[in-house]
Amino acid sequence: MEAGFSEMRNELQSRDALWRRIQLDCQQLHTELLKMREYKDTQEIQIKHKSSCVQLTEQLENKNAGLLLLAQSQEHQREELNKIRNHVYREEQSHRSEQERMKTGISDLTEKLHQKEITIATIMEKASLLERQLKMELEIKDKLLAKQQFLDFRYKVIKSENTHLKEMV
């Protein structure tokens, strides 16, 4: 897409340079036309020959025709230049809006990722707390089991002593 913009800018600059050159040529021709008109006026006073006047008039008419053609060409070039400028402007606007949409999308995704990271951290803290609680409960159960086994053992010993005492009695 950037290559297309670069190519359009180069085309625009090229046409702009051509337009300026045509404008300069028009100015030079206009200056020359003015000089020729002045020359014609002085020649009419000094020279009474009709053929010279006709020749200068034809030259002026040819120059005028050339100027008109250049002016038409210049106007056409200006229209083309404006079309290209408008096209480049629309493309740049489209590119900018696409960039803004992408920035917004990236920002939204970053926010979602941040929220998920917070959720994961919270879950990890809860899991760690539950793990500690389970370890404590296991330790308590192990102690209770050991106590129960000890009590069972004492019970069996006492029962056995009781049985022995009953037999003796």
From TrEMBL:
<dbReference type="GO" id="GO:0098535">
    <property type="term" value="P:de novo centriole assembly involved in multi-ciliated epithelial cell differentiation"/>
</dbReference>
<keyword id="KW-0963">Cytoplasm</keyword>
<dbReference type="GO" id="GO:0005737">
    <property type="term" value="C:cytoplasm"/>
</dbReference>
<keyword id="KW-0175">Coiled coil</keyword>
<dbReference type="GO" id="GO:0007099">
    <property type="term" value="P:centriole replication"/>
</dbReference>
<protein>
    <submittedName>
        <fullName>DEUP1 protein</fullName>
    </submittedName>
</protein>
<dbReference type="GO" id="GO:0005814">
    <property type="term" value="C:centriole"/>
</dbReference>
<dbReference type="GO" id="GO:0098536">
    <property type="term" value="C:deuterosome"/>
</dbReference>
